[in-house]
């Protein structure tokens, strides 16, 4: 012990020879070659001795530092006294008989120095950014009430549809579509079936979809196959034209929970839709996208069975809506989107793109600002408005799946109450108040027509 204390005081154990210091580092007593009684056996030689030395040095440093900080703090007058607990040592017992500096309490109270602290966070005074009004002159839309085409009572009969109401909430058919021939297709999700009506509203056929756990939406392709988005089982069910289940497409559970619709484009690529503003590709060029890759295909934009492209709304420099036309590339995930064309649209800045008709005219919608209904515009392929109407829907709320633009350019709505479901057709109007003509049968030669490709521009 005397040799160790001598070394702590900066003296050379055994007449100052380096060999004596090295002997002590190895746990030997001043060169005599005997093991210290508190040492561990090999291969841990010297651990206890070095720990003792370092612990005593650490204790001294902490005590000196604490005293120094206390001295400095006492010379200042703190604005708000604050206490901090600083430990002075780690609780390690020294070897018996080994002198060690003693410390008073195990913690020292240190007064905080004066610090200026703001009592309140600064409040931003900048007003929210508001986009200026577009420069385009937009015609005022005339209100139209429409013509009721189909009315179904609640029930599970042939001319009925499933409706449930609870806590002032109504659950009825989730989606409907209008065929190229004017027929009406309706997803009776509560009764798990798809109903097909002719142009007069007469039931033509029914497809049972009992394999679906929670059908959300449906679509029919050109071959008459029916695709059911079943987010209850995280899958898409594919039925042949005769109504038999042909195959299933597995879905990523995360995407299935986020999506609220299903869509095909003109190239028969199948997508899941979110609020008609973004999509995921699940079937591309006839190949199923694996569920683990589906999240990588998410893109913003609107897709439609009448075009191979997707449509995105941004803004031009004059704040008019700018429609970007983009298309899917050959890859399922990387570089999925490529821009084809764009059109500046002379409409209000808060419109959303909705669909195209068979002639490739563009349709935009927004909630009616001063009435219970929805504004619908038909826009020519060059971006100029052709006309439109304010659809008067009354107490019926219109979501993107309960609004439809058919191939001729007429607008349709589906409205559910606690007792029935009605489907109504609306004619859009020209600026002079006369009905707009049906869209021509042939598609205009534009970059988003069926058969167009990414290099169309």
SSE arrangement:
Elements: H1 2-8, H2 18-25, H3 47-74, E1 83-87, E2 107-111, E3 143-144, E4 147-154, E5 160-161, E6 164-166, E7 169-171, E8 175-178, E9 184-188, E10 193-197, E11 203-208, E12 215-220, E13 226-230, E14 235-239, E15 245-250, H4 253-258, E16 261-264, E17 270-274, E18 278-284, E19 287-288, H5 291-294, E20 299-300, E21 302-303, E22 309-315, E23 321-328, E24 337-344, E25 352-356, E26 362-367, E27 373-379, E28 385-392, E29 403-405, E30 411-416, E31 420-426
Parallel strand pairs: 3-28, 4-5
Antiparallel strand pairs: 1-2, 4-31, 6-7, 8-9, 9-10, 10-11, 12-13, 13-14, 14-15, 16-17, 17-18, 18-19, 18-20, 21-22, 22-23, 23-24, 25-26, 26-27, 27-28, 29-30, 30-31
What would you note in describing this structure?
Helices cover 12% and strands 34% of the residues. Mean pLDDT is 78; it is low at 3-51 and 74-126. The chain has a 5-stranded mixed sheet, with no helix packed on it. It has a 5-stranded mixed sheet with strand order 5-4-31-30-29, with no helix packed on it. The protein is globular, with a radius of gyration of 39 Å. With 457 residues, it is mainly beta.
Tell me about the largest β-sheet.
Answer: 5 strands, mixed
What kind of assembly state do the chains in view correspond to?
A: single chain
| Average of the residue pLDDT scores | 78
Unreliable spans are 3-51, 74-126
Helix content: 10-25%
Beta-strand portion reads: 25-35%
Based on helices, strands and strand pairing, what is the structural class? Answer: mainly beta
Count helical runs.
5
> Largest beta sheet: what is the strand line-up?
3-28-27-26-25
Distance between the termini: 92 Å
CA-based gyration radius: 39 Å
Which word captures the global form?
Answer: globular
Strand tally:
31
């Amino acid at each position: 012990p005397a040799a160790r204390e001598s070394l702590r005081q900066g003296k050379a154990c055994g007449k100052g020879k380096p060999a004596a210091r090295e002997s002590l580092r190895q746990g030997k007593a001043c060169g005599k070659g005997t093991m210290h009684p508190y040492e561990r056996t090999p291969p841990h030689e010297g651990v206890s001795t070095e720990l003792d030395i370092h612990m005593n040095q650490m204790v001294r440093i902490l005590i000196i530092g604490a005293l120094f900080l206390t001295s400095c703090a006492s010379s200042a007058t703190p604005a708000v006294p604050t206490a901090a607990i600083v430990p002075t040592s780690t609780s390690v017992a020294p070897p018996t008989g080994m002198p060690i500096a003693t410390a008073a309490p195990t913690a020292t109270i240190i007064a905080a120095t004066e610090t200026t602290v703001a009592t309140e966070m600064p409040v931003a005074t900048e007003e929210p950014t508001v986009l200026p009004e577009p420069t385009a002159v937009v015609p005022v839309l005339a209100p139209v009430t429409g013509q009721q085409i189909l009315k179904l009572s609640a029930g599970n009969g042939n001319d009925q549809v499933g409706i449930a109401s609870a806590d002032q909430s109504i659950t009825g058919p989730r989606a409907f579509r209008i065929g190229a021939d004017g027929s009406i297709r309706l997803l009776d999700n509560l009764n798990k079936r798809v109903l097909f009506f002719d142009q007069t509203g007469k039931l033509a056929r029914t497809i049972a979809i009992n394999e679906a756990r929670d059908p959300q939406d449906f679509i029919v392709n050109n071959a008459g196959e029916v695709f059911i988005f079943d987010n209850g089982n995280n899958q898409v069910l594919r039925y042949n034209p005769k109504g038999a289940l042909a195959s299933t497409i597995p879905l990523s559970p995360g995407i299935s929970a986020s999506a609220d619709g299903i869509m095909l484009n003109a190239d028969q690529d199948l997508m899941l839709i979110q609020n008609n503003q973004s999509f995921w590709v699940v079937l591309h060029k006839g190949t199923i996208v694996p569920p683990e890759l589906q999240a990588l295909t998410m893109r913003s934009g609107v897709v439609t069975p009448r075009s191979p492209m997707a449509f995105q709304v941004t803004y031009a420099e004059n704040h008019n809506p700018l429609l970007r036309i983009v298309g899917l590339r050959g890859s399922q995930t990387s570089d999925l989107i490529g821009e084809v064309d764009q059109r500046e649209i002379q409409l209000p800045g808060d419109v959303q793109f909705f669909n195209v008709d068979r002639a490739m005219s563009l349709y935009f919608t927004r909630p009616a600002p001063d009435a219970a209904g929805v504004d619908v515009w038909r826009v020519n392929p060059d971006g100029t408005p052709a006309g439109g109407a304010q659809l008067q829907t009354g107490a019926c709320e219109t979501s993107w799946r309960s609004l439809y633009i058919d191939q001729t350019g007429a607008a349709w709505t589906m409205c559910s109450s606690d007792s029935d479901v009605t489907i109504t057709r609306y004619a859009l109007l020209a600026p002079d108040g006369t009905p707009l003509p049906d869209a021509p049968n042939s598609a205009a030669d534009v970059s988003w027509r069926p058969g167009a490709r990414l290099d169309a521009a």
